[in-house]
Task: inverse folding
């Protein structure tokens, strides 16, 4: 299975996810197509394995970056910066995996429920940072207030260990919704950089990324120190 996934990853880089072919993977491995079908039943099943692998990889990076920052007694805002920087490093090293999970959807592919838990790992880190800021008083949202009821799926609350959405206090639920801003700035900033949208616009890509992350974070109430 490891050789199969390695070959499929290479094909992602050369052919793209939309053109991933079990026949091509089998040819690269020097085996028949029927041999590949013993491990995966379809192209979509292989895509699912690659997607879960990518989500787990970036989720682990986010978790380890957060753990390292917390061990160093960093405040929640700086923990978020450490996580964002860690994810950026992963994305630059694995652009095809990033594109697979955060880029253009693969035509005709419908992600199964199997991908949800892996996809939520990074979300759970973001939500945990928001909650830490709420608990220690460092989270000071700029607003606006809104009714969070029904805005976030139950899976996000459950994965973050909060139980049913109806049991979550309103201000805590607002923090979960505001975490979308952190996620959007992270993926948006990386997309702009990886897909060349900053070419001839930015001179210092890491600096622009940090400023993007910090500006968005300030809006949800996390104040990152970029000058210290």
Result:
């Amino acid at each position: 299975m490891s050789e199969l996934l390695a070959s499929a990853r290479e094909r992602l880089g050369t052919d793209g996810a939309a053109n991933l072919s079990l026949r091509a993977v089998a040819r690269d491995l020097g085996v028949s197509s029927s041999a590949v079908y013993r491990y995966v039943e379809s192209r979509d099943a292989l895509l699912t394995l690659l997607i879960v692998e990518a989500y787990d990889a970036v989720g682990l990076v986010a978790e380890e970056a957060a753990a390292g920052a917390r061990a160093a007694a960093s405040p929640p805002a700086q923990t978020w910066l450490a996580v964002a920087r860690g994810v950026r490093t992963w994305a630059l090293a694995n652009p095809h995996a990033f594109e697979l999970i955060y880029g253009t959807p693969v035509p005709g592919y419908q992600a199964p429920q199997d991908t949800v838990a892996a996809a939520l790992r990074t979300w759970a880190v973001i939500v945990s940072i928001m909650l830490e800021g709420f608990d220690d008083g460092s989270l000071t949202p700029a607003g606006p207030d809104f009714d969070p009821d029904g805005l976030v799926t139950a899976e996000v609350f459950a994965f973050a260990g909060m139980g049913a959405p109806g049991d979550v206090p309103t201000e805590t639920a607002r923090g979960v919704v505001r975490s979308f801003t952190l996620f959007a700035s992270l993926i948006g900033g990386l997309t702009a950089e990886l897909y060349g949208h900053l070419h001839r616009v930015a001179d210092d890509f890491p600096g622009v990324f940090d400023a993007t992350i910090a500006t968005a974070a300030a809006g949800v109430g996390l104040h990152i120190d970029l000058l210290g």
Summary: The chain has two domains: 1-41, 44-219. DSSP finds ten helices and no strands in the chain. The domain at 1-41 is CATH 1.10.10 (Arc Repressor Mutant, subunit A).
